[in-house]
Amino acid sequence: LTLAIWLISGAEFTFALKAFIAVLIIACPCALGLATPVAIMVGIGRGAGMGILFRSGDSLEQIGKVSTIFFDKTGTLTKGAFRVVNIQTLDHNQEDFLRLVASVESKSEHPLAKAVVQYAHEQGVALANVQDFISYAGAGAEGTVEDKKVLLGTAKFFQYRKIDLSALAAKVEPEFAQGRSLMFVAIDGAPAGFVTLSDTVRLGAAHAIRDLSTLGIESVMLTGDNQAAAQAIAREIGISEVKAELLPQQKLNAINEAKTGGVVIGMVGDGINDSPALAASDVGIALSSGSDIAVESATVTLTGSDLRKVPQGIRLARAIVRNIKQNLFWAFFYNVITIPVAAGVLYPAFGVQLSPIIAAGAMSLSSVFVVTNALRLKRFI
User: Euclidean distance between the first and final Cα of the chain, in Å?
Assistant: First the structure.
């Protein structure tokens, strides 16, 4: 079009050809083509150096828009390294009681189960064979040991199984008051006692929740543990909203319900039970120290278990998106300004024609600017 206009207006062919070549060079979309991928490449590389692994660049905008993050409790906000602190029985010998419970739990992969089995080993209690073992995700387990049917689980699970725990109420209240986790036990359909376990908050969890708050992000705890234990942990780290005594399906329902509000929802978890919620959330964040299936279900993986990487990852994603927008603005702005100059709009008034050599240099500088701007992400902290 530039060539045709100048020839029609009576300009010399050499002049028109120079304008034609200058426009062709200056309009090269190198900067535009580099704007997004170079920022994503540098940003994701910086994230990897910080221990924040983004599965792909496609999800970065979603990550930056997260408004609410749901946290699993056991193994995520807490270390998941439970220890047995008390055993209460109604009418059973404590050693026999522990043997029955630990034998059933030896078939489970849950952190609570591992703690009970370890405690039994420390006490020198020999485990027995287990038959008819069944695990109920997020609720409990059962099996037959020494011809006795042993049922383990949460108070809510026992309520569902119609087993009355009122005989244990007086002993349970002090444990709940200290925010501990309780595993109730029934033998042959009758309540037999409970095992009390304690956990500790992960270092940096409270710091992460405060950082998320400054970013305008609400934090919510999801857990299958009892309400009292969940509230105690929540108070310690600064989370105000707690949804406790949830099965994996109920965690998934909580995520889906939150998404109906049109906001971007994140989920942080580490266990097999968290996988459905991680996959259903807009942004799933898994700890690499957790289960393989949780990592596979997530959008972002944090190496180690430092939760302070959660707000860091969100800030980095926002910085990458911001950098992309800056690059795109510069690339478009550059073309909008320089193409008319290359076409010769300044020549009639000022006698200025852009040389193709200068146009080539300007085009290269545009690409250099975009790359240099993206490289600033390497200094992100």
Answer: 48
Report the C-alpha gap between 119 and 125 in whole angstroms: 9
- Which uninterrupted H or E stretch holds 274? none
Residue 319 to residue 338: CA distance in whole angstroms: 28
Active site residue 72: yes
Dist. CA 280–CA 210, nearest whole Å: 25
Name the phi and psi angles at 218, rounded to 5: -85, 140
- Among 78, 72, 62, smallest CA distance to 314 is for 62
Distance CA 126, CA 95 (A): 10
- What does the alpha-carbon distance between residue 4 and residue 14 come to, in Å, rounded to a whole number? 13
Is 102 exposed, middle or buried (CB count within 10 Å of its CB: 0-12, 13-18, 19+)? buried
> How many contiguous H segments (helices) and E segments (strands) does the chain have?
16, 13
User: 244-256 burial string, b = 16+ CB within 10 Å, else e?
Assistant: bbbbbeebbbbbe
Distances (CA, A) of 372 to 179, 211, 256, 268: 52, 29, 41, 34
Q: Taking Cα atoms as reference points, which of 204, 195, 280, 264 lies closest to residue 238?
A: 204
- Separation of alpha carbons 258 and 277, rounded Å: 12
Q: What is the DSSP string of 121-132?
A: HHTTPPP---EE
105-122, pLDDT tens digit by residue?
A: 999 888 889 899 999 999
Contacts of 159 (CB under 8 A, 6+ apart): 165
pLDDT in tens, 325-352: 999 998 888 778 888 888 888 888 888 8
Q: Which of 72, 211, 225, 306 is catalytic?
A: 72
Name the residue among 197, 158, 193 with its Cα closest to residue 74.
197
